[in-house]
Write a structure and sequence with these properties.
Layout (H helix, E strand, L loop, with lengths): L1 H44 L3 E9 L6 H12 L3 E10 L4 H15 L4 E10 L1 H6 L4 E4 L4 E3 L11 H6 L24 H26 L6 H4 L4 E3 H6 L5 E2 L2 H11 L8 E5 L5 H5 L14 H28 L1
Parallel strand pairs: 1-2, 1-8, 2-3, 3-4, 3-5, 4-7
Antiparallel strand pairs: 5-6
Amino acid sequence: MEHEQKRSKSETFFTYIKNLFIILLFLQFAPPIISSIKSTLVDTIAPKTHVGYLTINGTITDAAFYVKKIDDMAKDTEIKALFLRINSPGGHAGSSQAIFNELKKFRAKKPVVALIENLGASAAYYIAAASNTIIASPVAMVGCIGVLMELPNIKDLLLSWKVHFRYVQSGTYKTTGSMVKDLTKDELDYLQRMSDDNYYQFIKDVAECRNLSVKDHKRWADGQVFTGNQGLKLKLIDKLGSYNDAITELKRLTKVPATDEIRLVPAKRPSGLARLFGSEDDDMGGDQMSAATQVAGFMGAVYHAFMMQQATQGVQAIA
């Protein structure tokens, strides 16, 4: 009898957890579904031109998300253009070049407008250069076209603590850039050649997209950061303005009447819960999960634990 009462209480609590988990799932996915239905109805009554919306914030370290989203938008027949909003100091050369190349392919089919309100420097400017039109605020920071390799060295610090390193290497340049040894002249020359090659690719791509002369690169590509005002004079940007000016430019490029509306279609990152259920996109946006998503994830773990407990009890009862 006592065993039956314990089992009954356990099943009641398990049912409560299960129902709570289902409610949280509903709260997670219902708003996007309702929002999608609402948008469809609104577009049916008053059609809007769909424009992809992609934001690049912070340091650029990985191109995978951006490349995929740009490719998806290029294939989406409803999307007529791309609005690129940038606030970044730059980042990795390879990642920025990958995004740049993907934008060039997109630009061959549909127009791209980039907006730099605060910062679009180095690798971030590299990406913006692939746009049909670059708009920046007069005080924004743009440019900083150049390549930087930072090589910290802690050899003397280690020696002061009597810490010594020895190498067994195959390949003359394998330890180049190690922070526990000094650079040789040959190694420094080797790194300089690598930097120069990256730099040449950078200025060549920017010059081609911005209709600038590579021969004149010392005026606009010596590593300086320029204000939007200065960038306009150097032809690094096309217009001074803000968000509304970018929307106006998108209407011009897509040949939409000025009185018509544009609907921005954001490229969103999947939340943790969406990835758990195999969904690639959801309406949470960004890298951080909402409180509801985090709670739902926790409840999922609890739900799984109780399922295991129930299974164990079942086996014991059979035994």
